[in-house]
Design brief:
This is Tc1-like transposase DDE domain-containing protein. One of its GO terms (molecular function) is nucleic acid binding. The protein is mainly alpha-helical. It has a single domain, classed as Ribonuclease H-like superfamily/Ribonuclease H (Nucleotidyltransferase, domain 5, 2-Layer Sandwich), CATH 3.30.420.10. The chain contains 6 helices and 2 strands; from the N terminus they run αβαβαααα. It has a two-stranded parallel sheet. Helix 1 packs parallel to helix 2, helix 3 packs across helix 4 and helix 3 crosses helix 5.
């Protein structure tokens, strides 16, 4: 996601690992390149596969910058708010089968607007003054 909206998503059964995350990143890099955007800052949490040498080197090879959030700081990651809204929308669909679930995930993605994403970024930014000053963050 960016502050302008969702960039891409991929529905996958099962857990992610470095290999499938790298595949996903390459898809995102194609989108970024098609939009003629350069030097993107990729903000990621501390999932171990985000920090593998292969992932870091690939990000840098495309002239982008990996940024890792401090541990236990989901309030600094706007995508956590996006996921929260998305899960709520999917829950409302009341899917009963895997196919219905995948369909509702896909359909619900269109209900996350650029205004939502901008709001998620603004919410994150509201924590920055306290973080910069080293104050405790009340989430």
């Amino acid at each position: 996601m960016s502050c302008e909206g969702m960039v891409n998503f991929k529905i996958r059964e099962g857990a992610y690992n470095a290999e499938c995350f790298l595949e996903y990143l390459l898809e995102i890099f194609e989108i970024i390149q098609a939009r003629e955007i350069s030097e993107v800052y990729l903000v990621m949490d501390n999932v171990p596969f985000h920090k593998t040498a292969l992932v870091q080197n690939t990000i840098r090879a495309f002239n982008h910058v990996p940024i890792y959030l401090p541990p236990y700081s989901p309030f600094l990651n706007p995508i956590e708010n996006l996921f929260s809204k998305w899960k709520g929308l999917v829950r409302q669909a009341n899917s009963r089968t895997a196919d219905e679930l995948f369909s509702s995930i896909e359909a619900s993605s269109t209900n996350i607007t650029s205004n939502d994403c901008l709001g998620f970024y603004r919410h994150m930014e509201s924590y920055l003054p306290d973080c910069i000053q080293g104050c405790p963050v009340e989430n």
